[in-house]
Amino acid sequence: AEAAMACLAVDPAILLIVVGVLTFLIAFCGCVGSLRENICLLQVFSVCLTVVFLLQLAAGVLGFVFSDKARGKVSEIINGAIVHYRDDLDLQNLIDFGQKEFSCCGGVSYKDWSQNMYFNCTATNPSRERCSVPFSCCLRDAGQAVINTMCGHGMQARGYLEASAFIHTNGCIDKLVNWTHSNLFLLGGIAVGLALPQVRALTVRRV
């Protein structure tokens, strides 16, 4: 049960479904309320929009003020995803996509994959993938037509310098933090762009 709940907490498909349902309900209240001039639905729409806006604002402020704790939470989420890598196909594809895009492997380093029961590097692990890392950690060759899914075999047993010739040894947490800092103005612009229509809707509703 604990494994199932942990998997559900990071399952992107379920997250998208929940966000989609909430978005539909809020939009439904606003649309039908406007067409039917239903004060109750319009009030629900206004309250929901206000709550969403305040949550976004609070998340942004808290993320900036408690950046260290936010980093720790991201580390916790990534480590949990590593543990349940083989339990859910959607989660597996999401991790592989992230590691390919950010050219990283694991949370802090590639040896974090030892937290997974299949990639665990202990001598008692009977898995064929013992001491390995996923193929998404491997260095990509532009001229390679077929992906070698076994390229990460036994990489955890090698040192950083030796493994760096075959895989990305840096973790995804630092890569993600660096990407966020380098795209801070872009992310801020997107946040403002998402907030302006909400503020406009709230202003029009009150007028």
TrEMBL record:
Disulfide bonds: C104-C137, C105-C121
Residue stretches spanning the membrane: 12-35, 41-66
Keywords, sorted A to Z: Cell junction, Cell membrane, Cytoplasm, Disulfide bond, Glycoprotein, Membrane, Transmembrane, Transmembrane helix
Alphabetical GO biological process terms: pore complex assembly; protein localization to plasma membrane; protein maturation
One of the record's GO molecular function terms: enzyme binding
Family assignment from sequence similarity: Belongs to the tetraspanin (TM4SF) family.
Subcellular localization: Cell junction, Adherens junction; Cell membrane; Cytoplasm; Membrane
Record's bilayer topology term: Multi-pass membrane protein
Organism: Dryoscopus gambensis
PANTHER family in alphabetical order: TETRASPANIN, TETRASPANIN-33
Protein name stated in the entry: Tetraspanin
